[in-house]
Design brief:
With 337 residues, this protein is an alpha/beta fold. It contains 8 helices and 18 strands. Helix 6 links the parallel strand 11 and strand 12.
């Protein structure tokens, strides 16, 4: 069986590992001379437990930190991939090695073609349905200006490249907002709050005294903090599937993701449903939206006494559930939208 592509390279330390996930084989890197940049909370915590210094955002890198090389782990979203490359290159000195690693399904071949038109590329290795290659960082401004990540203005809301629904309001969230009651419960949790649009709709309704935004993606939560300045809002960088509060709430809203990285994970929504039940009082209520084809009914009936579809269309279904059966929090698992 082919090993990791990472074992084929030997970056000079100290090295930045931008976007590395808990599932990546980092055994060839010394935690004492490597800094990981990973904003997904479960991956962040797992890598930290393995002894790595882990930063949620590359902007968290201290002024005194120096890197002689970097490895960028390519995400599927093209805008985010370019932003990661540009951010990593910006903190490396001219002549440094910038390694780019990715699967074919994540666009590594397109990235290789682009980089060959911009800088010297060598050490191209193919393995395990992907590639890794080395770019020698040129001096001066060598990357296109639009590769640098900038705010996306959605008319009162700010997002960033690569976030879920970065270019506009997600239609499923919009449909869920339209089916929320006119008056909301006093204490509400938005599980998987993203950059905060749905939370803003909840806060716009009467009745809410406290709203907890729970989001695993550090950059999405940073946008949510900028988008929502209401003092009733509290922000939690946390894994939504294991999140708990000291006291139960009487309302949960959510548009749960159903992908774990690259792969569809139909069990992810079920873990969100379990978490929602664990947060609610017995009289509390869940409002959620899901793609029509996702089989969440079994999980809903397991964790709630009453489950009703209150709206939807051929793409989405809006579900209201009550009578939560509270259970212990499950073990943390890595996932993203």
């Amino acid at each position: 069986m082919a090993g990791s592509r990472l074992e084929l390279i030997a970056p000079e330390g100290p090295v930045l590992l931008v976007g590395a996930r808990a599932s990546d084989d980092l055994s060839g890197f010394d935690p004492a001379s490597a800094v990981v940049v990973q904003g997904l909370r479960p991956d962040h915590d797992s890598l930290k437990a393995r002894g790595f210094r882990v930063l949620p955002l590359l902007s968290d890198l201290a002024e005194g930190d120096a890197a002689n090389s970097a490895v960028v782990f390519l995400p599927r979203a093209r805008a985010l991939a370019r932003a990661r490359i540009a951010a990593a290159a910006a903190v490396l000195p001219p002549g440094a090695a910038l390694w780019i690693d990715g699967q074919k399904t994540d666009g590594i071949d397109a990235a290789l073609k682009e980089m060959r038109g911009l800088a010297d590329v060598d050490e191209v290795h193919s393995r395990a349905h992907g590639k890794i290659f080395r770019v020698t960082v040129p001096s001066g401004d060598w990357l296109p200006e639009d590769w640098v990540a900038r705010d996306i203005d959605l008319g009162g809301f700010v997002t960033r490249p690569g976030l879920f629904s970065a270019d506009g309001v997600d239609p499923a969230s919009a449909m869920l907002a339209a089916h929320l009651p006119e008056r909301m419960p006093t204490r509400v949790v938005d599980l998987g709050a993203g950059w905060g649009w749905l939370s803003a709709q909840v806060l716009a309704r009467p009745g809410v005294e406290a709203l907890h935004l729970v989001e695993a993606d550090a950059e999405a939560l940073a946008c949510a903090r900028r988008n929502i300045t209401d003092p009733r809002a509290a922000f939690h960088w946390a894994d939504a599937t294991t999140f708990r509060l000291p006291e139960p709430v009487n309302g949960v809203v959510m548009n749960p993701p159903f992908h774990d990285g690259r792969a569809a994970d139909p069990h992810l929504g079920a873990r969100f449903i379990r978490a929602a039940a664990g947060l609610l009082t017995g009289a509390g209520r869940l409002w959620m939206v899901a793609n029509r084809h996702l089989p969440y009914e079994a999980a809903l009936n397991e964790h709630f006494a009453g489950v009703t579809e209150i709206g939807g269309d051929t793409r989405f279904k809006i579900i209201s559930a009550s009578g939560a059966r509270r259970t212990a929090a499950p073990a943390t698992r890595t996932r993203r939208r």
